[in-house]
């Protein structure tokens, strides 16, 4: 059988994980330069240099459209890399960027994207120190692709496999804003106050780490909360129960999802973080996060349990439970 890569393989769901496990993890032999390596399939990896631990991550961005309410591909590229460093406990130190554009791309648009990248980097105080630029023939690329690579330093490395029963789950704000915004833009739907949440969340993570009691973090990007929570539960060997009534979601996002029959728990977020925290520190961490620019709407949305390891359950508003599975692929291709 002549198998080919499909769009769903890039959606962050179970299809992508299977593909990577059957190819990358089997074919690459040197996978580790520190405690966390490629085989952990985390948001990044660690590199040991003497008594220092560096966090290292890279990501490519192909969002369509490249300009959208609340941001653009430039803000997305810098935020995504900062956030991948942050959820592993890494304070961002520097970013590199490689840009590939299609022949005929507007220079004014390229200038806007560069300005957006610079402004986003300044929010965190992380310099963009080096990069690369390539042009491909017209028709061989859809506009622009940006790859960003980041390095940070961690006092205490966090992975998405360190949840423990009895801990609480904090979500730093409303869900589905980015995915819903992109979906509406592509289909010319008009929803008032619908904007992407794309933002660097180091301020949220820094505030949480300063309080302590943090075991694991993850930014719920492709596949949304559904993918992120299932990955954390599976890797940690625990169960997670989230409370439907506590999940913050804006009315335009809810309305769009109800119209199209999409679960907002599967929609991409680009400015949120899930935090696993000890029960006795949860309220203190929540209060600290709510004082930050990007954590004002944070809530405790669930708990970690010893039952049904690897499973995520949603306690519904009527008191029952349903299983929250990870999507096979993202319902919206080329979302980030």
Quick synopsis:
By secondary structure, the chain is of the alpha+beta class.
Topology overview:
Layout: H1 14-22, H2 24-27, E1 45-49, E2 52-61, E3 67-68, E4 71-72, H3 73-86, E5 90-102, H4 107-124, E6 128-136, E7 144-154, E8 168-171, H5 177-186, H6 202-211, E9 214-218, H7 224-236, E10 239-243, H8 251-260, E11 274-277, H9 282-290, E12 299-305, E13 312-315, E14 321-323
Parallel strand pairs: 5-6, 10-13
Antiparallel strand pairs: 1-2, 2-7, 3-4, 5-7, 8-11, 8-12, 9-11, 10-12, 13-14
Overall pLDDT confidence: 94
Sketch the topology as an H/E string, one letter per element: HHEEEEHEHEEEHHEHEHEHEEE
Number of domains: 2
Distance between the termini: 31 Å
Q: How many helical stretches?
A: 9
Query: In CATH's first tier, which class of the largest domain applies?
Result: Alpha Beta
Q: Determine the strand fraction and express it as a percent band.
A: 25-35%
**Main sheet?**
7 strands, mixed
Which fold name is given in CATH as the topology of the largest domain?
A: Phosphoribosyl-aminoimidazole Synthetase, Chain A, domain 2
Uncertain stretches = none
